[in-house]
Amino acid sequence: MHAQAYKHARLMDESEARVEMAGCFDSEADRLVASRILERPDAYRRWEAEHAQLLRAVSEQAQLSRQVVMLRSAACALVHRKAMFEYLRDYQVSGARRHRLFAIFYGFRDYTNAVLAEHGNYVRCSSSYLCMSYLGEHLMRDAALDEPLQIYEQRYAEYFRTFCDAALAETEEEKNNVAPMESLQPLLKYQLAEARQAILQMPQVPAEEWREASIRKPTGDTQRLRALFSGGRSHIARLA
Questions:
Q1: What is the dihedral of CA 26, 27, 33, 37, to 10 degrees?
Q2: 120 within 8 A of 40, measured Cβ to Cβ
Q3: Rounded-to-integer distance, Cα 173 and Cα 3, Å
Q4: Can you give the residue range of the structural domain that contains 166?
Q5: Cβ atoms 19, 131 nearer than 8 A
Q6: Is 60 helix (H, G, I), strand (E, B) or coil?
Q7: Does residue 1 lie within any of the structural domains?
Q8: Residue 3 lies in a domain
Q9: pLDDT digits (tens, 9 = 90+) for 144-161
Q10: How many domains is the chain built from?
């Protein structure tokens, strides 16, 4: 395993190559996001500047082990930052509900500009998220940015949906429907914080060793995840 820390230029070169590869090998959604970056020079320059800032916190670390932790932290932050647009897309939020949602996060600023700002944020964050996963799994050989991060992303999307559904509920029927999940929001938020901390504290394990360990353990996400955290107890598993 590579033992030396990576330079900033190498991380940026690998990231730029990863975005270019998205047009050929990734899902339709990822290809669309990458094309929005690659086809517009102004969008690419802004993404490049923001991504470089994200990676600066990684490359400044003198030890590879610290770079791995900072990369994981950046990836988790990107999960949060792209969640709003994914909620809008996945649950087809439109009309007055869409306006109210933007008012919650952006205040009563110009709606059209808020939508454009959020979409641009989603495109840049999604592109960076592709890069973080690639750098972690293929460059630093860190399994935490594979399945554990995917599970965290799924759980954060569920938490974010609960928050938004509760905030947008207006009628008595809507409020009654979301009340059970709304009462769980503090617990879900606490569990997410625990899950993020568990990811940051995971030992650095190559993805192939993670998958091999998973095969040898009893089936079920909880059992697989427990095997990779000290003490046999995974906060992420408790969210699964």
A1: 20
A2: no
A3: 57
A4: 8-239
A5: yes
A6: coil
A7: no
A8: no
A9: 998 899 999 999 999 999
A10: 1
